[in-house]
Amino acid sequence: MDWRDHGILLTARRHGETAAIIEVFTETHGRHAGVVRGGASRKIAPILQPGAQLDVLWRARLQEHIGTFQVEPLRSRAAAAFSGRLALSGLNAVVALLSFCLPEREPHPGIYRQTEQLMDLLGQDEIWPLAYLRWELALLEELGFGLDLTRCAVTGTTEGLAYVSPKTGRAVSAEGAGDWADRLLPLPPVLRGQGGAPDDEIAAGLRTTGYFLAHRVAPSLGHTPLPEARARFVDQFTRRL
């Protein structure tokens, strides 16, 4: 059996003397692994870089087998990724989280399209962190842990929303928080798509999304902790504040 798709390379590791095992996030077949014969060669190895856009043909005798990939490059993102430390750490965070969070062979076309758009912004450091924050919000939603930031979970108001409950993922107003404010997560306007999205708000938003990735998503998968690549990206970003 076989199928053809296009996707984003997440990981590649050497297999034996000449082959490589790659993991690709494809639009219609999800996160999928396979062997690339000759993947360690001088001709193919440079193609197999994280973030690369590939056309892949997968073949296996049985569906449950790991199978083999034939790959053709569609777009390399190496130049953008190596344009600076923020771009490289951001790319590493995205591919690490996808490999960590997504179940194998389960299609997620929505988050695939958003990931492709995010990857194409690599190297544009002024807009990429905001796009990345929105991507993390979309990833939480895709995994069933979306945040409800429309109204206060305590009072029902839509005004003065300032916090997120770490237990429910729902917004809380300053009035509704009361004495519990120091136990809640920040809700900067940028998380609700409001305002000019300054870097300090993006950093606060990443603190909130990071909490739910670490304390909701990771335990649900039996994995802990989150990939270090995410923490390195956040650290690289906050250094410029």
TrEMBL record:
Gene3D superfamilies: Nucleic acid-binding proteins, Recombination protein O, C-terminal domain. Residues 1-76 form the DNA replication/recombination mediator RecO N-terminal domain. It comes from the Bacteria. It holds the Pfam family RecO_C. One of its GO terms (biological process) is double-strand break repair. InterPro entries: ARFGAP/RecO, DNA_rep/recomb_RecO_N, NA-bd_OB-fold, RecO, RecO_C. The keyword DNA damage applies. GO terms for cellular component: bacterial nucleoid. SUPFAM superfamilies: ArfGap/RecO-like zinc finger, Nucleic acid-binding proteins. Keywords: DNA damage, DNA recombination, DNA repair. The keyword DNA damage applies. Involved in DNA repair and RecF pathway recombination. Belongs to the RecO family. PANTHER family: DNA REPAIR PROTEIN RECO. This is DNA repair protein RecO.
